[in-house]
Amino acid sequence: MLTDDQKAFYDLNGYLMVDNVVSADQLRQLQTVTDALIEASRAVSESNEVYDLDKGHSADTPRLTRIKLPHKRDPIYHEVLTRSGVTQVLTDLLGPDTTLITSKLNTKAPGGGAAVEWHQDWAFYPHTNDDLLAFGLLLEDVDVDNGPLMAIPCTHKGPILSHHMNGVFCGAIDPDDPLFERGKAVTLTGKAGSMTVHHARTLHGSAPNVSDRARKILFFELAKADAWPILGANSYIHSLGQRLFWQDLQDRTITGQPCLIPRLENVPVVMPLPPAPDNTSIFKMQQSGGAKSAFAQG
Q1: Which stretches of the chain are assigned E, i.e. beta strand?
Q2: Domain extent for 99
Q3: pLDDT of residue 59
Q4: Which of 131, 135, 286, 295 sits 20 to 30 Å CA-CA off 108?
């Protein structure tokens, strides 16, 4: 699906915007199912295994930061990952054998929906090599006012900045870090059905949503099958045991086959430990870990 120029752009810059990666019918299904999940959150009063609630959430005014693991909530989310243009882009960039790390649907509420402070995904889950990326499928049009993803080009080939604060892993960099060059950031806006791509080492973040529209982006984080997670990162897989992990690995194989021979590369690794007081989501991690905000809070 990707042209040679697009592949070269991604390799150089560590990010990409791809238009029209799902069909019109798939997009409509995604929007309908997502709206139904948000509507169902009216009955929820605190964050749980499905929802991360934002400040001000109520039955009258549902406000979410995230729907967790959407690919387990409705088949349409898994379908677009395995049978759409998303799948083709995945194969183009990571090859025929790929594994899902996690999924999430960030539903940044209108009127100040929570920012995601600047970070590198790699800091959360280092692997034996860095053939990892994240897709962000836009379920609604995203413009500069409703908290679009921002990325800093070429940082995927640079250092991993510290994501620690006050002696714990807070899941965000210090905006005063001299290696943080925010002036180089690009803003990734687009129409519904478009998709952002960023390398796991690319510095990225997003400001609060100051518009009157929700910003709904479906994120899939994936790895080439020969990239194996390094023990110590915050993940449910460590509690599964060998037999259940093998079953889970097969469930998370998106294309091709699992790889049992990890490829070891000279990649920078700092373990995301000790954990923040609340590490149940990136939002809670950044807040409880004392991360400094790079964004003006309204």
Answers
A1: 15-18, 51-53, 64-68, 98-108, 116-119, 132-138, 149-151, 164-165, 168-169, 186-188, 195-199, 204-206, 215-224, 253-255
A2: 4-288
A3: 95
A4: 131
Chain segment 183-217, per-residue pLDDT in tens: 999 999 999 999 999 999 999 999 999 999 989 99
Q: Examine residue 256 and state whether it is found in any structural domain, yes or no.
A: yes
Q: In this structure, which amino acid lies at residue 248? A: D
Question: Residue 295 domain-assigned?
Answer: no
pLDDT attached to residue 81: 97
**Measuring CA to CA, which residue among 107, 3, 14, 4 is closest to residue 63?**
107
Residue 56 φ/ψ region, left for φ over 0, alpha for ψ in the -120 to 50 degree band, beta for the rest: left
Burial class (CB in 10 A: 0-12, 13-18, 19+), 46: exposed
**CATH code, 188:** 2.60.120.620
Q: What tokens appear for 94 in the block?
A: 């990571």
Is the residue at 254 inside a domain? yes
Number of domains, the chain: 1
Burial of residue 198 (number of CB atoms within 10 Å: 0-12, 13-18, 19+): buried
Mean pLDDT over 140-153 rounds to: 95
Residue 103 lies in a domain: yes
Q: Is the pTM of this model over 0.85?
A: yes
**pLDDT category of residue 235 using cuts at 50, 70 and 90:** low
**In this structure, what token pair is assigned to residue 262?**
């990890």
